[in-house]
Amino acid sequence: MIEITRLTKRYGGKPAVDDVSFTVRPGRVTGFLGPNGAGKSTTLRVLLGLDRPDGGTALIGGRRYRDLRHPLRTVGALLDGAGPVPERRAVDHLTWIAQSNRIPRRRVHEVLELVGLTGAARQRVKGYSLGMRQRLGIAAALLGDPEVLVLDEPVNGLDPEGVRRVRDLLREYAASGRTVLLSSHLMAETAETADDAIVIARGRIVAHGPLAGLSAGHGSLESAFFALTGDREGRGGW
């Protein structure tokens, strides 16, 4: 389970997240939604130990990320901007990660097959398309067969088949009793994938609960999102 409690993070004295609290339960896919600059990425960076909070806590299974003994076996993550060395082959990139966390080499080939990259495993990453790079990032997140997945825009750049594959994977992962936190700006895809949603705007949580409840009375998740974030005309991304 992921537990964020009264989390605050400031940059230059300005709060990026302000007294944020929410829980992500196992057995469900939880969408993390918000306009650009709302605080999604900051929250995920603090959760994954990349930034230190100015207040509050961000715990995975009751522990801070930096206190996890085998991080990749507990939480798998995909963050925007995190990628492999372009000159490295995909299979070598995953093997290096596996060795750093004492993950069996066979798991490298399992995740490559899972994301549809077996045929391109020995190609250098610099020759990969955006969608192939995204698949490789998802493979790295799955490498440790973790109990928790934290994914930031996982279907970015994927073709329709890739989107469907990721959607099915996340649903199966949650159905097995594990925890999935999915950060996205794609309302339609989130509506197809998530069970619950957390909506953040201007650094504060404005809604948290089952997806059906958040959408009730609005006609769609997109309409509910604009109403909740105060962006009724959908201009928050510009």
From TrEMBL:
- Keywords from the named record: ATP-binding, Nucleotide-binding, Transport
InterPro entries from the xrefs?
A: AAA+_ATPase, ABC_transporter-like_ATP-bd, ABC_transporter-like_CS, P-loop_NTPase
**Keyword check for ATP-binding:** yes
The keyword Ribonucleoprotein belongs to this UniProt entry's keyword annotation: no
* Residues in coiled coil: none
Residues in ABC transporter domain copies: 2-227
Q: Give the family this protein belongs to, as stated in its UniProt record.
A: Belongs to the ABC transporter superfamily.
Q: What is this protein called?
A: ABC transporter domain-containing protein
* Organism encoding this protein: Planomonospora alba
